[in-house]
Amino acid sequence: MVTIESLVLRLERVEAQLALHRLVHDYCIGADHRDLQRWTSVWTTDAVWETSPDRRFVGIEAIRAAVQDQWRIFPVMQHATANHIVEIDAPTATGRCDVVVLVQLPDRRWIAGGGSYEDHYCNVDGSWRIAYRRVVRPFDLAPLAPADGPGEVNDIPD
DSSP label at 58? Predict the structure, then answer.
């Protein structure tokens, strides 16, 4: 039998799943649009961001500095995540998603790369945050020929 209590639990679970999916999108949007406020808002203050076995950033200040370094190196970044799955055990959750990333080098060549993210999430004062993110199965492809990035197309047909 369906009860009000069971419906409330189901609704809370659906809301948590939607919030976690939005969190993963906000991570990409913050990085790609150089939105430091949005980028910072996805992390817990003591978060860990492990981009490779030898690159680990601990705490919001280190994570913020790391993305700002990426912005200096790559004039344009475009992330796309897919296949995001979450397991919720409130007030924490785990997740995994695949990512494809295109980055432009200063000489206007592009690199395509990606991998998967393994995440641990924490609900802080009613908002989900990334407490730990690790890049697994990373890959990079050789640089592509120089090209204009998004918003820089000069030959738009009339």
Answer: E
